[in-house]
Amino acid sequence: MAPPVFCQYYYSDSQPYVPAPEKVTNLHFFLHDTMSGKNPSAVKVARPNVTTAFNDTTSSFGSVFATDDPLTVGPELTSEVIGNAQGLWVSTGQDVVSLVVYWDLGFTQGEFNGSSISVFSRNPITQTERELAVVGGRGKFRMAKGFAHLKTYFVNFTSGDAIVEYNVTVIHQ
Fold this sequence. Notes:
Helix content: under 10%
Shape: globular
């Protein structure tokens, strides 16, 4: 009796994978995170069920916020909107205010309309300048990696509102 053949038609004479050349794209925009007023772009969706000194603040440890923050060309909220940052941020710092962000930065105008980059990183918001990791993308940013250099343009720690300047370097196919 002949031994069984398990991969009889699995082999092919295909060519080795050759990835497309990488492109580098530099993006510049402003993110508006608004927690106050009648139409906030970030809202608390969960908070820890514990009593702490921080339960009544906008940055309480363990709180989760859903966002749909506009991305604009300039720092004014009235400047052209080119996309939005949809996702979550979690207040993760117990001693120092820090967030972890899970965002899809989607573009709705111009050359990158319909494309987005994915950000998943620690965001130490009390530092004026900081860096986030770009971990993926879609559309024109397929297979993206890179980093976003952030600089706080405006922040109101009482209301939680902030405007942050983004300079993003995206490496993609």
